[in-house]
Amino acid sequence: MSHCHVCGSNSAKQERVSEVFVVQGRRILVEDIPASVCLRCGEPTFSRQTTEQVRRMLNGEAKPVRSEEVDVFEYA
Ligand SMILES: [Zn+2]
Question: Among 23, 31, 32, 74, which residue's CB has the most CB atoms within a 10 Å radius?
Fold first, then answer.
C-alpha cells in the first residue's frame, strides 16, 4: 500500500470510480475504473496496469459504450 500523493494518508479502500480525461480537446468519461481511494481526502490512485489500460482505451483501441451530453458549469 502506497501513501496518498495528495495528503500522505496510507488508508485507502478499493473502489470503482469515474474519471474524465481530456484527449485532444475532447472530454472522455471512463466509468468503473478500479482505484485505490484515499479515506482521508478521496483522491483516487490507479495502478500502473490500470493507467496503461485506460490510456489504450483513450487512444482508440476500444469503442465507447455510449455517448452522453455533458452539462458544463463555469465557476465565475
Ligand atoms: Zn489523501
Answer: 23
